[in-house]
Amino acid sequence: MPRLEARRRWCCAFACGLAVATGCGRREPATPAAYALAQAVHAIAGRQHAGKLAEARAQLATAKAAAQVTPREAALLEDWLAAAEAGDWPTARRSSRQFLESQIVR
């Protein structure tokens, strides 16, 4: 039993250290363009406004061309837009909200 207890303590310490080192799930700060686009996708998905999806996709293309969003942010935004275009509004809304919430510094 003492070995098992020592292993548990070590695993717990490792997990806590890893959580602290990675920021407990916080992401890197978003670029202003990505944050604004995430807000737009969240609003569009909340209203299920299919007509605004093409406009949001055009804004994303412009931001990508001007290097205003990182490749990772662009991929996330494209995933959310694809989900909304496929009619999966809840996923687009939930994912964009999680991204926005990850930017809150507490």
In short:
By secondary structure, the chain is mainly alpha-helical. The protein has helices at residues 2-22, 32-47, 53-65, 71-85, 89-102.
Could you characterize what this model shows?
- With 106 residues, the chain is mainly α.
- The chain has a domain at 32-102.
- Helix content is 75%, strand content 0%.
- It has helices spanning 2-22, 32-47, 53-65, 71-85, 89-102.
- α2 (32-47) runs parallel beside α4 (71-85) and α4 runs antiparallel to α5.
- Residues 10-23 have low confidence and may be disordered.
Helix content: over 70%
Q: Approximately what portion of the residues adopt beta-strand conformation?
A: under 5%
Structural class, from secondary structure content? mainly alpha
Alpha carbon gap, first and last residue: 40 Å
Task: Tell me the number of helical segments per DSSP (H or I, 4 or more residues long).
Answer: 5
General shape:
globular
Could you tell me the mean pLDDT? 84
Low-confidence stretches: 10-23
Q: How is the biggest beta sheet arranged?
A: none
- The counted number of beta strands is 0
* Radius of gyration from the alpha-carbon trace, in angstroms: 19 Å
What's the SSE pattern?
HHHHH
Features:
single chain; 106 residues; mainly alpha; globular
Summarize the SSE layout with pairings.
Blueprint: H1 2-22, H2 32-47, H3 53-65, H4 71-85, H5 89-102
Helix pairs in contact: 2-3, 2-4, 2-5, 3-4, 4-5
